[in-house]
Amino acid sequence: MQLSTFRAWRESFEGYTTLIKADSECDLKARRHLVRSAIDTSWQEFWTNGGLKVSSDDDIEDILNKMYAYLRKKRSPLLDRKLFCQRNQHPGETIDEYSSK
Asked: Once rounded to an integer, what is the mean pLDDT over residues 1-15?
């Protein structure tokens, strides 16, 4: 999975968890199962085999952050530089926001 695809999936998933009120209506175990059921089989295998390093007290946000960090480590710095050089600063976007994306 590419980082951009993950970001889009994560935004949709977080919207879904908000819609069903997962944080207030579900216990930790149910929230972890919710994440596990929403990811594809390759991520499930990676989790099962210990590659994702999910601990027993990790909540949805923790798990998604670990998935993001894993994908981010796999990304090429050269690709980051290329995309940054191709990107234009948007109106109203501060220099800090522009340079940190």
From this structure: 90
